Amino acid sequence: MSKILNIVLVSVATLAIAACDSGTSTAKGSAAGTETAKAGAANASDWTTTVVQTPEGGFRMGNPDAKVKLVEFASFTCSHCRDFHDHGSAKLKSEFVKTGKVSYEYRPFMLNVYDFTAATLAMCEGPARFFFWSDQLYTAHEAWIEPFTKLTDAEIEPLKSLPPEQQVKGLATAGHLNDFAKTRGLPGARFDACMSDPKTFEALQARQNAAITQYNIQGTPTFVLNGQKLDGVTTWAQLEPKLREAL
Question: Whole-prediction pTM value?
Answer without folding.
Answer: 0.84
